[in-house]
Amino acid sequence: MTRRTPVRTAIVTAAVLLAGAGPAHAAASSPPPPHAPRHAAAHPHAAARPTTRQIAALFDRWNAALATRDAHVVAARYARDAVLLPTASAQVRTTHEEIVDYFEYFLQQRPQGRIQQRRITVLSPSAAIDTGLYQFTLTDKHGKTSKVDARYTFVYERHGRHWLIVNHHSSVVP
Questions:
Q1: Which of 9, 48, 56, 172 makes a 20 to 30 Å CA pair with 109?
Q2: Residues 6+ apart with CB under 8 A from 150
Q3: Which helix (H) or strand (E) holds 40?
Q4: How far is CA 23 from CA 10, 16, 127, 161, in A?
Q5: What is the pLDDT averaged over residues 3-16?
Q6: What's the pLDDT score for residue 53?
Q7: Which residues does UniProt assign to the signal peptide (predicted)?
Q8: How far apart are CA 129 and CA 121, in angstroms?
Q9: Which residue segments constitute the domains of the chain, with CATH numbers given?
């Protein structure tokens, strides 16, 4: 099992709250964790908070990686200790190798995602959540296409100059 930092734990907890209780409720009822920097943006060397447009672009980058049909390119969008709860597998993926393995299977269906509804929450200069509904268009080996509607949550964390997925949950809409 990987070691989680207090910030990572707080981010994942916030993602669960936002996904389960709704963004307005979670924001109103959850004070910032005691270890969170209170005035990080005021510090002259602190990173600027990303815009919702910048966070939305991270999905576009991930979706473009799907189009390469290269599992390693897609897996490179995830932190080394990311957690993936994928749409088309019951196995929780917690290692880079397991994430690559999942995408080797999933990319055979030539998936392309399209956001249908989303809510982006910027938690800090280095953390954000994008959650909502998306639809995948899948193409089988005979060229027949099908659509799959799914719910998603991406939790992003800035690692240096790069934003990586630290938690990704996707499930078919019931």
A1: 56
A2: 87, 133, 134, 135, 136, 170, 171, 172, 173
A3: none
A4: 15, 10, 15, 27
A5: 47
A6: 97
A7: 1-26
A8: 5
A9: 49-172 (3.10.450.50)
